[in-house]
Amino acid sequence: MSDQRIEAGGRKPELLVVGAGVIGLSCAWRAARAGVRTLVLDAGGVERASEVAAGMIAPIGEASWGEDALHVAAMASADAWPSFAGELAADADRPVPYRRPGALHVALDRDEAAELRRVHELHRRLGLEATWLRGSECRRLEPGLATSVAGGLEAPGEAEVDPRSLLHALRLAVAAAGAEIREETAVAEVLVDGGRATGVVLANGERLDAERILIATGARAGGELLPDEVRPPVRPVIGEILRLRPRGAERPCERLVVTERVYVVPREDGEVVIGATMDDRGFDLRVTAGGVHELLREAYRVLPEVAELELLECTAGLRPTTPDNAPVVGKTAIRGLLLAGGHHRNGILMAPLTANAIEALLTGAEPPAELERLSPARFERAPEGVGA
Amino acid sequence: MSDQRIEAGGRKPELLVVGAGVIGLSCAWRAARAGVRTLVLDAGGVERASEVAAGMIAPIGEASWGEDALHVAAMASADAWPSFAGELAADADRPVPYRRPGALHVALDRDEAAELRRVHELHRRLGLEATWLRGSECRRLEPGLATSVAGGLEAPGEAEVDPRSLLHALRLAVAAAGAEIREETAVAEVLVDGGRATGVVLANGERLDAERILIATGARAGGELLPDEVRPPVRPVIGEILRLRPRGAERPCERLVVTERVYVVPREDGEVVIGATMDDRGFDLRVTAGGVHELLREAYRVLPEVAELELLECTAGLRPTTPDNAPVVGKTAIRGLLLAGGHHRNGILMAPLTANAIEALLTGAEPPAELERLSPARFERAPEGVGA
Question: Of A15, A124, A138, A178, which shows the fewest CB atoms inside 10 Å?
Fold first, then answer.
């Protein structure tokens, strides 16, 4: 293992990770840590969804009827987060600001309350921990809530992590594990020879060979990079998001506060994140007046003190979204070609389970059962493919 | 005249202008152009209100009962704008994007319509050109207006100028007229000897002598710089303001559109400015979530297509505001010390008249009669002062 690390620069990598968002870096870190000689290619640029994510680790908020496979995987990944964060902090030699302030999912009128109670039924069926509270009980927990709050679900296990701090720690951990990151290196094409992936051609024309290739290019995974037969149906879904901070000492809430239309994430350092719009308009990162207006209006409706915060940043990210809103993680029909993508709004939440799955596939261990139903095979056009 | 210019670097300036916003630069330009050896001190920094101003030249929108002196001056300055812009463009050898798209002041309900009709009475009395239009007539002029628009005033003479482009042209014109601008040069104190201003002490301790000193430091004019007896009661009133641009070809309106709570200024190059909040909270330039929310909400109420615009910038500026909302322009009780400040929300609008007044005072010409009632004397504690 240590020999491989020393020689990583000179020999063909065992794993080429295309993409340096939270998914690519998490997989690269776990792979390198397991002794796989790994090279990460980072295209750079402004499209990285992880940079602008709110960093909610809130599977209860994501539970939807008819998405059980996704939900089971999300719960497993949320459970894996504390040890993932602990190991990452140790490897990176840097704190990872993961914490569990809990969440309050609130209803602002009777219709929303009825819907939230219906979701609560689903939670019970899935065995999730959440308690129904009356409006006054919600306000006792979070005194900043608007008086219109008609009821809510307290979910004490829900967590958050600052994605920028997380990305920084992942980069340090990747390096500490002996892997290399090549910056400003975009991939134009994956090379396939006789049903096996053999390497990539970079945007500058250079060719890189590798034993295995992991595609973790977020919203770009559905693009020209991959051959037709294994190209996942991933499309960009823009999310506009705001970063704010208190002007004094007080923050608007202690827990994650979530409504049907908006969420408010308070960080330990005082930062407050308000997200996120959802819009299908291609590779367009422009922040609209309407999106910002909607976020501020809805946040103000639930937590009026939000109006007092300083507005620091209005940005947008592109969620990599599949037709069933669930990720595609695992082997493809092309041998040596792996996918870790389509995480929609759950990239941060799903990073630990995704990285565990990719590590298992690379080292021959048993991959997490929760990801079985989320393999790329469900979208492939040539289901006879046999995999890596 | 040409001798003085050539020697400006080496000899004591005849005029030291403290402040390089639109007022300071306009006065410096006119003074230098008239042959006065001029040095401008620019403190730099982010506080310059001119940088974030909307650049409306819309005296009708500013007309208020009981502010006749201000209004007469505003009208005179608006009338002076075309020749000011023309001369500036010639001296700067650069276009000045002054234009007159006209304005539509609209009412969004019957109460606002009643108030706007009352203002229209005032306009008639002041001899202003404005026509009352029904809601449908407003929408014929500006099809993007919300159907709730109940009526409005068309003011075809109202104009706008991009203040950043204006500042750039002023700097070029100041230099072309032979004056010098010293960057990053803050003034700590004005020196007074025997009732006459003799120079300034810079923040770095350096002393600069001058025959006359013009204070044009915006919201800072009420601070420690000036001796008590001539310090004008100028306070900062923050205004938050947004800059946007169309994502396609279409802009939300052709004219300046103004309601009781917001204005929307379309520029020739496509930029759209939405302003501005008003708040008394000292030297605090932080943009609040509540301020941005209010601007977007009110702009959306009157021009729904604003929601489609890309949001480029949320900033704030500090209006230099006096107790009667009118500027203080002219000589003070200390000989050789002049003031050009307190322009509140009318700095761009009032620049030509202010610069003409200062030029007249420096060259011994007759100052514009419209500024007589706006002299610093009205706020001075020692009215027996005789002036410069």
Answer: A124
